[in-house]
Design brief:
Layout (H helix, E strand, L loop, with lengths): L2 E10 L5 E5 L2 E5 L7 E8 L4 E10 L10 H5 L12 H20 L8 E2 L10 E9 L2 E8 L2 E7 L8 H12 L9 E9 L2 E7 L7 H6 L6 E5 L6 E5 L15 H17 L4 E5 L5 H8 L3 E6 L2 H10 L5 E4 L2 H4 L8 E4 L8 H9 L5 E6 L2 H9 L4 E9 L9 E8 L4
Parallel strand pairs: 3-5, 6-19, 11-12, 14-15, 14-17, 15-16, 17-18
Antiparallel strand pairs: 1-2, 1-4, 2-3, 4-5, 7-8, 7-10, 8-9, 10-11, 12-13, 18-20, 19-20
């Protein structure tokens, strides 16, 4: 049974919810700002409570009106922080990193600097949405923040590049040509001058040719059917870069982060480098160009093939799970890990913590919690620097580059 209560918000938690206390119990409330005094509908859990705002009785100093009408009007869950000033968003993300290191890694770090380049709106080069069957066509959208099973029909997205939005509208105009299923998942991505589409779901796609003919502006189409196995089904590029998801969705911040990681590697003057979760090998190729002997490890075979074709010998690219092969490729002077949101397997941190001869570890993370967990699994390493990147303004996501060195190293 829900109840109503008044809560004052103290800070923003990882994930974007405001945090307050009620009779000593922590209350997590989305769409709130530090300093807000809010009346909430309360749902108590075992050790905490969740609130949904019924009324803002007094607004905190950082609260603003969200620019996107879908944020408040439709409760779209694609963004979490549009109700905060940009400075407040970034300050909250810095504290998310500090808090994760303190709570999870049991490490105290200073407030990390935040790299802020590019525009805070219209930056997103990839938009993924769910499509649900409505008669002979589909509707597409993101989910409500307070009802994840409810779709907010697509109209616009203020953080997404207009080129991506234009192709999404064109897809919906011809959605009758999509494969037939109760629901699908699809993404549109801009990669340089090319627009790429990836459709997931359904068992057959008998109208693929008609769909492709209706979208001449699309350079390539991937399809992952229900039975799995992503494959290119339409390819119109002369020289195709592999994969449907390797490019950063914020080009300006992605370039800044790449430069930061490359500088961190070069500062150690390595002769050998292990680049783990290497994607298509942008970092590996740059370092190999410096004369470093690089081993790039990536699970995706297409990305590995691309990297292998562009790495000069004796550098090489290997298609494998990092946890399966890391023991075979240590020591290396420098190790870079750039894992997905789940972080690295425990076998990876175990191997690194026991490794002898590694001078520097550069960890690129898209989740402060899993970064902190993995740092906590490295008791023989110390944190030298932590740099934050506001890759996704208006959302609660933050990218981090942490540089670690072995205890006892000069």
């Amino acid at each position: 049974m829900s109840e109503s209560a008044v809560v004052t918000i103290d800070r923003i938690a990882t994930g974007g919810d405001g945090v307050g206390r009620l009779d000593g119990m922590v209350v997590f409330t989305p769409r709130t700002a530090p300093g807000d005094r809010v009346r909430v509908r309360l749902r108590r859990e075992r050790r905490f409570a969740r609130g949904i705002v019924e009324q803002v009785e007094a607004a905190g100093p950082d609260r603003i009106t969200a620019p996107c009408p879908s944020y408040d009007g439709a409760a779209c869950g694609g963004c979490q922080l549009q109700h905060l000033t940009l400075d407040a968003q970034r300050a909250a993300k810095q504290m998310m990193i500090v808090d994760a290191f303190a709570r999870i890694a049991r490490r105290t770090i200073p407030l990390p600097p935040m790299a802020t380049v590019g525009a805070p709106w219209g930056y997103r080069l990839k938009l993924t949405m769910e499509l649900r069957r409505a008669g002979s066509r589909y509707i597409a959208g993101l989910h409500r923040f307070d009802a994840p099973d409810t779709l907010v029909p697509f109209d616009d997205c203020a953080i997404t590049d207009p080129r991506v939005l234009a192709v999404w509208r064109a897809i919906l105009d011809v959605s009758i040509q999509l494969p037939h299923a109760p629901s699908l998942r699809a993404s549109v991505r801009v990669d340089g001058d090319d627009v790429l589409v990836h459709v997931e779901g359904a068992r057959t796609w008998n109208t693929l040719a008609e769909f492709a003919d209706a979208l001449p502006q699309v350079a390539a189409i991937w399809w992952t059917p229900e039975q799995g196995g992503r494959r290119v089904v339409i390819e119109r590029r002369a020289a195709a870069h592999p994969g449907a998801s390797f490019a950063q969705v914020n080009a300006a911040v992605g370039a800044a982060m790449h430069a930061e990681v490359l500088a961190a590697v070069r500062a150690a003057a390595p002769r050998t480098l292990l680049d783990a979760y290497s994607g298509t090998g942008a970092l590996a190729i740059a370092c190999a160009g410096d004369g470093v002997r690089v081993t790039a490890v990536e699970l995706d075979p297409d990305a590995t093939a691309w990297a292998a074709a562009h790495l000069p010998p004796p550098s090489r690219a290997i298609a494998a799970r990092v946890e399966d092969v890391i023991h075979s490729h240590l020591p290396a002077d420098v190790v870079v890990v750039n894992p997905p949101r789940a972080g690295v397997d425990a076998a990876v941190t175990t191997a690194l913590d026991r490794a002898v001869g590694v001078k520097r570890l550069v960890y690129v993370s898209c989740d402060p919690a899993t970064l902190a967990r993995d740092v906590g699994r490295l008791p023989h390493w110390r944190v030298e620097t932590v740099q934050a990147f506001d890759m996704f303004p208006q959302t609660a996501h933050v990218e981090t580059v942490a540089v670690l060195t072995p205890e006892g190293a000069a």
